[in-house]
Amino acid sequence: MIMEDKYEEVEETLDPLLKALEDEAVSGKGNNFALKSGDLDREIVSVLNIATSWYTQRIFGNFENGFGLEERLWRIFGAVLHKYRSKVTKYQKSGDTVYMRSSFDRLDKVLKFGKRFYREFIKRVVELQGTPEDLRPLMVLLKLEDVETQLPSESVVSRIYESVSYSLCRLGDLSRYGSTLTYNREKRDHSHARVYYRSSLTMNPSIGLPCNQLGNLAVATRDYFYAFFWFLKAQSVEKPFSVDNVRKIAMKIFQMDLEDLIKCPLGDFDDGTLATGVRRAIIKLLYSFVGLHIYDLFYRQNQGPVKQRNLTSVVATFKTVLSEQYANIPSSLLVDLSLIGPMLIQQTLAEDKNISQDEVFGLTAEMLRSMLEIGLLSFDGYRQSPEETVPTRLKPILPAMRIYFDWLVKLILHSDINYWEAYTSVFTILFRFVELLRQEYGFAFDSLTAVKTLSGQRALLALEEEKKTRGMVPWDGALNDTPSGMNAKEAIKQDTSKFQCQCLLFTAIELARLEQTPLRFDEPNQQFIFLDERSTDLSDENVSETTITSYNDATMATTYIKDSFSDDGDDEVVFKGRKC
């Protein structure tokens, strides 16, 4: 109650000052105006001083439960910054350079006040609560390396990360305000804001706020696709940001002319060396990918540009570009595409408790199926090049495949629904793909003991640990697909692609051991088997030889794909749109 009263007291004191700030342009000119505006600014800063002092005292008085107070304090800052910023933009639009310069200088004083406060706040956090070891590099960034501190108690470590991460985000906001509202029209420099946001995200990957702010930076530079990824990521964590920005940017992209989009930046996806044809292909891939997710977002309400009638063409474009150009597309982009689908499923289920997983699984299943098709086709003719240790065409998609496999195991592990009937074709291709990997590379680990270390309850514990330390799985490469007993660093040093293949084999065995899909692992013979979908009783004693398919011919893999998975096939994955 005291908190509520104090917040209302600050608001009551601040509101008339902000109203005066809004109306002051018509109350005077020249020196008289400057004197009045200076007095008003001092009053506003005085209120900010009182607010920061009061809230800081309460936050450190009960630090473990003080995050709500930190959010309230920023609301006060935000209200003040919004009013000062609106004055700058007002004079920018009117072309009044004198008052625009004056308004910017006034805003800059408030920004400097805020930056000083948040730096000092972080300093107080580490002085009073301690500094975790992996936080020390940040102290150098903030020039706080000389602060006397100690290791914190375990009970407050996560709270320290939460508090410092939030403060870094607000430092990023203050830097972003300053760089976007330059009165001399210099090139906007978001580098400081970007460093703050990324530091915040690194420290606490489970919150969506820094991702959303990085998306805002991308929008400011017309980097719409990169913004789309950041806004999606902001949704796809343990403490997600609002879905509104995803909807807005997706609609904007899909309604833009493709030729205009081709001129847009591509963020980290383009280092300036992409050929024109490859760049165009990437844009088409991203464009169709955005279309898929607009369908997923809006189809249930039958609104937006992607409806049932043109979904087929969007999917066809996506699959065509992916199959033709995937070898030229940066592997990091394929990883991002692979991450977004599973994360949207997680967020959809969190938003709508009445929707079942199978209603949102189809979109990502189609992407997984496309990757698997490429994986099978990549073995075609591979043995004609004996100098290759892994098919060249397979290498670009291996990191993305690891994400899909890891996600699939965790999805099914936490699900009580049957994916058998709707997605048998996906599991059929997956079976053939992993059998090819097994035949070609064998197991560089003990296929029995390696799996048992992360099966059952251990897998659940591993998933919970990933959520706590890395944000929502599988963001930021939080994969636990390295077989135990295998030296990952040494294996990567020898052959990264072969190591990635071993990770896929390991995850496939995990999937088989769940016994919730047609995929099984024959332990005595050390090979994968596939149960015919017509079998309804999956207990071991009731599985006859006629319901088990063993796959030992690599040549059949590419023939199967070419002959069986046309657009007219009976096994086509069914899309079911998302409820909004």
Automatic annotation (TrEMBL):
<feature type="domain" description="DNA/RNA-binding">
    <location>
        <begin position="193"/>
        <end position="474"/>
    </location>
</feature>
<dbReference type="InterPro" id="IPR045153">
    <property type="entry name" value="Est1/Ebs1-like"/>
</dbReference>
<dbReference type="InterPro" id="IPR011990">
    <property type="entry name" value="TPR-like_helical_dom_sf"/>
</dbReference>
<dbReference type="InterPro" id="IPR018834">
    <property type="entry name" value="DNA/RNA-bd_Est1-type"/>
</dbReference>
<protein>
    <recommendedName>
        <fullName>DNA/RNA-binding domain-containing protein</fullName>
    </recommendedName>
</protein>
<dbReference type="InterPro" id="IPR019458">
    <property type="entry name" value="Est1-like_N"/>
</dbReference>
<feature type="domain" description="Telomerase activating protein Est1-like N-terminal">
    <location>
        <begin position="69"/>
        <end position="180"/>
    </location>
</feature>
<dbReference type="Pfam" id="PF10374">
    <property type="entry name" value="EST1"/>
</dbReference>
<dbReference type="Pfam" id="PF10373">
    <property type="entry name" value="EST1_DNA_bind"/>
</dbReference>
